[in-house]
Amino acid sequence: MSPSVVGLLLLMGVLLLNAGGVKPWTSGLLAAAGGACYFLSLVEGKKDQTGIRQDLLTALAISLWISWILWLCIQTLYAWPEDWLRKVAPNTIYVQKSASELLATPIRYTLSLTPGDSIQGLIASTGLLSVYLAAYHIAKSRKKLNYLCYGLIFIICLEAIYGIWAYFTADDYLSAFNPYWSHASAHGTVANRNHFAGLLNLGTAICLSVLLYQGQTRRHWHSLYRRLFDPELSRILLLRILLVTLILGTLLSQSRMGNLSIAAALLLSGVIWILQTRNIKSAFRATLFFASIAVLDVFLLGSQFGLEKLQDRLVESDIQKDSRVPLNQATWLAIEEHSKLGTGLNSYQTIIQAYRPDPIFPRARHAHNDYLEFLLETGIPGSMILFMILLVHSVMAARMLRSQSNNQRAAAIMSVVAIISATIHAASEFNFRLPAYSTLFVIILGATAGRHFKLRSHQKARALKS
To answer: Are 285 and 223 a contacting pair, CB within 8 Å?
Structure first.
């Protein structure tokens, strides 16, 4: 196993052991560990002769990432002339002057209203870019990507197993590992069950991808049948058990949007995979596979563990009484005044105090909507950059799905499931503010870019030969 793969796996493990990475030193850890993994991947790339070459879409994705970092630097580090800032962001001027008078400090006109917190976000974002580039170079090698995927599945499954164990165990010593431990729902080492469900959703995306790749490499149905029902734990059967574990953990989290988002992602990805399968027998096998997930995993498993409680939560949901609604309304009020250029990354907790409705969320740290929070903090430019990053990787996945290579299509499904579940869940939660979740999602995007590079390289090589 390559050092860069080991580095990324250790990073994910450390983040999860520290409640998902919510400690103040997480930004520095991401920057240092991400940079080290990127350096190691470059060294390994030279040995493997994969180099630092890029195709057009990958170059665009990396350019967008760099644009994101540059925009955060502009928001956080650059001191703007007062006259100019008064024209484009008059509310920022007012807040800066009020804070200066209150704290008796000199005024420095930055777009960020909380420069110290925004610098932490900038450092973390730089680390995530390094993680992305490391995953990109790792994914150029199918063997390295396999190691990375199996390692991530193992780590996320340990998180799921811990969450399941804690749910069925009432021993107080579990609080030593997670001070936020509660018997009401499964949430593993993280404080929020929705974050727990989000992590498991991304793990499900990786596990599903590896399962599809392993299953499709066996061309004869009877070979697949023997591997599935052999008494010894075959690789496919082991992956199937791990997938069941991830889905069970998601069910026990009782996260409404977490379960709905992964259900929608699996349904859409299954339809896409079947429609893109050219061989009728392969399409039939794929249909049985996705049907087994729906029937065996969701309904039969859910009927025994937690599905009734989840259904009760869905039935009892009242939008008018949901505390997220007034908080999001307060966030919209702040956006109307600051959305052009934003208030700076990680500034939400400070800014929302002037808009929050008492006594709802008296100490709200995040909006329960990633879209609104990013729009408030990074403004229209930052939100557009993030949207373009997702769009570019969606295009990559669409291209890979049209490939005749099973490993390319399986990697594309990993990206499809991750993007669909993450974008749906982001409408009601703040998963991307959990460093462990953001890191895992960025690894998936980087792996997608790496496999897309290999696809384009093979296509160009065939075109030259012909």
So the answer is: no
Q: Token pair of 142, please?
A: 């199918």
Element housing 281 (H / E): helix 280-292
Task: Give the whole-angstrom CA distance, residue 132 versus residue 440.
Answer: 10
Q: What is residue 423's three-state secondary structure?
A: helix
Contact, 169 vs 215, CB < 8 A? no
Contact 207, 148 (CB under 8 A): no
State yes or no: cis peptide before 359, omega within 30 of 0. Answer: yes
Spatial separation of the C-alpha atoms in residues 102 and 84, rounded to whole Å: 24
User: CB 135: neighbour CB atoms within 10 A?
Assistant: 29
H helix count then E strand count, the chain: 19, 0
Q: What is the largest CA-CA distance in the chain?
A: 77
Structure tokens at 386: 């993030």
Return the amino acid letter for 99. A
pLDDT in tens, the chain (466 residues): 789 999 999 999 999 988 888 888 889 999 999 999 999 998 887 765 554 456 788 889 999 999 999 999 999 988 888 788 777 777 777 777 666 666 566 777 788 888 888 999 999 999 999 999 999 999 988 889 999 999 999 999 999 998 888 877 755 445 555 555 555 667 788 888 889 999 999 999 999 999 888 765 444 444 544 544 554 457 778 888 898 889 888 888 878 888 888 888 888 888 888 887 767 777 777 777 777 777 665 565 555 555 555 455 544 555 555 567 778 888 888 888 877 888 889 988 888 887 766 655 556 778 888 999 999 999 999 999 999 999 999 999 999 988 877 888 889 999 999 999 999 999 988 999 999 999 999 999 999 999 988 887 766 666 666 5
- Distance, in Å, from the CA atom of 362 to the CA atom of 175, rounded to the nearest integer, reads 25
Distance CA 395, CA 387 (A): 12
DSSP conformational letter for 112: -
d(CA 107, CA 118): 17
Measure the CA–CA gap between 206 and 148, rounded to whole angstroms: 10
Instruction: Write the single-letter amino acid at 61.
Output: A
How far is Cα 40 from Cα 44, in angstroms, rounded to an integer?
6
Decide if 57 contacts 452 (C-beta within 8 A). yes
